[in-house]
Structure formats: structure tokens, C-alpha cells
Amino acid sequence: MAFRRYRALPQGEVTVEEFRAWLGQFDADGDGRISRDELQRALRSLNLWFAWWKARAGVRAADANRDGAVAGDDEVATLFAFAQRHLNVKIAELGASYY
Ligand SMILES: [Ca+2]
User: Fold this and answer.
1) 99 Cα–ligand 1 center, Å
2) Which SS3 state, helix, strand or coil, does residue 91 take?
């Protein structure tokens, strides 16, 4: 995939809905799941360092059913929490239930 332009995350605080919408554009094969490769592309678009490592860590943290991808509301919510802790994404309205 060459120089496709991705929508950036909104500036300032990000809600889980915004995060999910942003993440969805990296679902290259459209299967509704974010694989490690797809997450890596997402993190690269944020100009994050160590995108490969962070994608691996993010999927590992969020992939509750161990199918190798982030899928479903619960796993996206966990990834969202991971992004807040490790990727310096500012998160709005993060409920205690995500922990
Ligand atoms: Ca996918």
C-alpha cells in the first residue's frame, strides 16, 4: 500500500468512538478486525517510534480471545486504554469499566 493518506486522530482528547472510527480506516482487508500489521500501520501514521513493537504489545494487551487481532467493542476498549497509557493518546471519558 503506497501513499494513502489517513485521517489523523482528532486533536486534544479522543473519545472511544473517535478512536474506533480512526482505527477502522486501517482495516485494510475489511474483516472488522485489526491485525498486528494493520495496527502497525495505524501507529506509523501517528509517527510513533517503535511502531512494530508497540503494535505487537497493543495486540497482546487487547486480544482477549487470543485470535491474533483486535476485534469487538471490548478489545477495542482495551486497546484504547493501552493507547492512553503507552502511546500518549489523550483519552476523553474513559470509564472505569475499561480497566
Ligand atoms: Ca482486518
Assistant:
1) 25
2) strand
